């Protein structure tokens, strides 16, 4: 008789009926549409039908789900978090696909674009008919986007964009790219249709992490867009950082989904696998690993719920999101690596989900602000001194 890690601390009691219902429906979708195929997609480094999958995610109301209007579901932040946890319990690439669509591309347009652009893009994006990406990182500027080189200059009533963006999730699938560029007025955002002349997306190959996710380099070579494509009001890094805070919030939850899957797998394996004539789960060292993993998983979920409730109360601050992202991704990767040891040699096989989750979390540790940058954000808050500028 074993106890599920969620039951040990009574985690399900933290959630409302509606939150549990959302978790169940996301779990049903991933079990049907992704789980049976995702190890193969990871191994091949490509998804079978990403557009079809995006439509299925849209049909369930998961795209831009915490936004209001324009066909979005308008859920609470905690409900959105619960969905992220279930998506990432399947694969971090799947959660990334949804996060970039909803929290980065759609949120940027929803928050900052003109009404005309919102009407143009958001309903199709919410339905999964149109795909978005978010271009902030460049080949030479990741953690310090303030020094980005991509430039937009006025030409009559239009803007001309030149530059390169790197490591862009959904980049070569996208119909619209949110591009952040330097202008004479500071950094500005643009909703760029990807079929505009001069725009190209090159899929990045040879990744050993997030292999069931499309990542691309974007090239902008004299891309001409009308003034209506520019986000009218926001200037400076406030624009992209507001979007990153949304996506990082989803990662706080998502990372615990990856951790849960690894923990469940290790727990099952520990009671089934026998060495020296008894289950390896009977050895104290294995029990200590499972107990420590469960402790960190439980604390991570509690933190996610706490931040979710703060966000729903309109009180969540960016440094609190940093705290959650830093802790939960760091602990999730640790849980996956420990789970891997419990599975022995089987731990490195794609027959089990553990190594896939561990490898995926290497990307999650780096994107949306590296573990180091979030550490320094907390350090700055604690000491009043900025160590990174
Ligand atoms: P760098 O900034 O060069 O950092 C390298 C190392 O130096 C890191 O350890 C970093 O923490 C450290 N470092 C840098 N500055 C400091 C400092 N001041 N003090 C201490 N340490 C420091 N970007 C997008 O815009 N859109 C996307 O959709 C997107 N998707 C991604 C998908 C994947 C799979 C990956 C891997 C990345 C993605 N990214 C995306 C890019 C990601 O956000 C960047 O990789 C990240 O911000 C780090 O930038 P960098 O890789 O250039 O590393």
UniProtKB/TrEMBL annotation:
Keywords: FAD, Flavoprotein, Oxidoreductase, Transit peptide. One of its GO terms (biological process) is fatty-acyl-CoA biosynthetic process. Belongs to the acyl-CoA dehydrogenase family. The keyword Repeat does not apply. Its cofactor is FAD. InterPro entries: Acyl-CoA_Oxase/DH_mid-dom (IPR006091), Acyl-CoA_Oxase/DH_mid-dom_sf (IPR046373), AcylCo_DH-like_C (IPR036250), AcylCo_DH/oxidase_C (IPR009075), AcylCoA_DH/ox_N (IPR013786), AcylCoA_DH/ox_N_sf (IPR037069), AcylCoA_DH/oxidase_NM_dom_sf (IPR009100), Glutaryl-CoA_DH_mitochondrial (IPR052033). Transmembrane segments: none annotated. Signal peptide: none annotated. The keyword ATP-binding does not apply. It comes from Tsukamurella tyrosinosolvens. Residues 235-382 form the Acyl-CoA dehydrogenase/oxidase C-terminal domain. This is Glutaryl-CoA dehydrogenase. One of its GO terms (molecular function) is flavin adenine dinucleotide binding. It comes from the Bacteria. Residues 16-129 form the Acyl-CoA dehydrogenase/oxidase N-terminal domain. Residues 133-223 form the Acyl-CoA oxidase/dehydrogenase middle domain.
């Amino acid at each position: 008789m074993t106890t599920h890690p969620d039951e040990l601390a009574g985690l399900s009691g933290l959630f409302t009926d509606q939150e549990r219902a959302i978790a169940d429906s996301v779990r049903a979708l991933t079990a049907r549409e992704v789980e049976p195929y995702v190890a193969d997609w990871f191994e091949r480094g490509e998804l079978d039908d990403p557009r079809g999958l995006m439509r299925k995610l849209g049909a369930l109301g998961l795209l831009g789900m915490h936004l209001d209007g324009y066909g979005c579901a308008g859920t609470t932040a905690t409900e959105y978090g619960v969905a992220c946890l279930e998506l990432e319990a399947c694969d971090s690439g799947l959660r990334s696909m949804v996060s970039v669509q909803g929290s980065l591309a759609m949120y940027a347009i929803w928050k900052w674009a003109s009404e005309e652009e919102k009407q143009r893009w958001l309903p199709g994006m919410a339905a999964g008919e149109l795909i978005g990406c978010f271009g902030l990182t460049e080949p030479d500027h990741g953690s310090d986007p303030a020094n980005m080189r991509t430039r937009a200059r006025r030409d009559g009533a239009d803007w001309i964009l030149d530059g390169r963006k790197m490591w862009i999730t959904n980049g070569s699938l996208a119909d619209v790219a949110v591009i952040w560029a330097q202008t004479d007025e500071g950094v500005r955002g643009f909703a760029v249709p990807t079929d505009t002349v001069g725009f190209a997306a090159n899929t990045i190959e040879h990744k050993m992490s997030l292999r069931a996710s499309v990542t691309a380099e974007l090239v902008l070579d004299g891309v001409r867009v009308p003034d209506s494509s520019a986000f009218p009001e926001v200037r400076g890094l406030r624009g992209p950082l507001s979007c990153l805070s949304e996506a990082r919030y989803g990662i706080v939850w998502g990372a615990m989904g990856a951790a849960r899957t690894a923990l469940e797998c290790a727990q099952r394996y520990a009671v089934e696998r026998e060495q020296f004539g008894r289950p390896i789960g009977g050895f104290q060292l294995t029990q200590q690993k499972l107990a420590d993993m469960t402790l960190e998983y439980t604390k991570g979920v509690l933190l996610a719920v706490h931040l979710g409730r703060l966000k729903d109360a309109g009180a969540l601050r960016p440094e609190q999101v940093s705290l959650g992202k830093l802790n939960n991704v760091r602990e999730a990767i640790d849980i996956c690596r420990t789970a891997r040891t419990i599975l022995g040699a089987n731990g490195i096989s794609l027959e089990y989900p553990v190594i896939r989750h561990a490898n995926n979390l290497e990307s999650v540790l780096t994107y949306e602000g590296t573990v180091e940058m979030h550490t320094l954000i907390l350090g700055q808050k604690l000491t009043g001194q900025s160590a990174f500028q």
